[in-house]
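2024-03-11 09:14:02 INFO receiving multi-entity request
2024-03-11 09:14:02 INFO entity count = two
2024-03-11 09:14:03 INFO echoing inputs for audit
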Amino acid sequence: MVVKPVLSAVDASRLVHEGDRIMVGGFMDCGAPHSLLAALHAAAPKNLTLISNDTAVHDLKTGRITGTGHLVQSRLFKKIIASHIGTNQETQRQMNAGETEVELVPQGTLAEQIRAGGAGLGGFLTPTGLATEASVGKKVLHVEGKSYLLEHALKADVALIKAHKADKAGNLVFHGTARNFNPLMATAASIVIAEVEEIVEIGAIGPDEVHTPSIFVDYLVLADRLEW
Amino acid sequence: MDETTISYTPNKEIIARRIARMFHTGNVVNLGIGLPTMVEKYLPADLEILLQSENGVMGLVPSGPGHGDRDVTDAGGSPAGIRLGGCYFDSAASFGIIRGGHVDYTVLGVLEVDQEGNLANYKVPGKMVPGMGGAMDLCSGARVVIAATVHFQPSGASRLRRRCTLPLTALGQVDFVVTDVGVFSVLGGRFHLTECFVPYTPEWIVAHTDADIVVAKEILAKEIS
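2024-03-11 09:21:47 INFO inference complete, emitting structure
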């Protein structure tokens, strides 16, 4: 069994280059790869496109910033594709000021776009968003008397994901609601970096227990922080 | 009661209490963020339902096993727990459950809701652009959509409208609207008032709502506690 390289968060962050399209797992910081995000924030490659459920927290009144919120504040993104930016006032400010392009996508559509991207599909048909602003510019198709929006698949150059533990081969196990977008993103990027809290021997995770098969994971990073 | 003596006071608790009695044992229910989350507190003790949360959990409980674990949250990112027999899944599976019609009820917050069953709850252009999160999927997929809201906007206008003016979350998907003055079902392009909460009367509600309301023949006047 091929053993996956274990990198420091700093070395792993260098795999993200200027202009890359990146996926970042997590749902409001739960299941976000905080060590990788902190290292990427320090490396500061510019003109990135972010694909993520949300942009974590930035409260302009209290100054509290978490997770990807730090990267938004440092202007690493030229474009953000997300379903919810309500907890990050700075993302909203940049969007309204025309400083950063923000594409808001229904959460189920975003998840399925990523799943489709990793599953070799060009897209899918969904009733979600019909007759709303989310349907603007999209094709409406009719199947067996029902209307659907045609949504395209999403892929990325690099996925930064977080799992609870990995074996040395890269098989992943998630924990609680920290799973969210992480297993989907593991399938949809050219380079997949998994930050984990524990790396165990091959065989220590039984084949029935694996959530994400090792073949999707390119590099492992041992978490040095669980919050940021 | 004489109409002129009725004065309105916003009351979110009465909304949560009433909605908590709309479910049946065995139902799968998704409660949105904000006011809908309050519903959980008032669920009858003998009611067996499963709370689904779009961040990937079936059997969510506000506290209990898992509570305090940073990896267990609700859809608002707040700490949560999971009941015995519950399970976790990824976001694609979660929205497969939602779009696939496997959620019986969803309760969602409201900016505006109209008599065609249209809901606007995710955007005030130029002012508030939080994004739709899972709300559009929940509207299109849940079997029954309940809109939960105080009856009036801060300006004094009713949140029940003839036509929504804000960007829509979903077209024609709302089945019931529960406010702090009564319960409305949406049918045939009209609101049908089926219950009014003491002290509000059908006449008062019709006079103070900017929408077409049909008052049910056997309307119930309810004291909600």
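2024-03-11 09:21:48 INFO post-check: The CA atoms of residues 13 and 205 of chain B lie 19 Å apart.
2024-03-11 09:21:48 INFO post-check: The mean pLDDT of chain B is 94.
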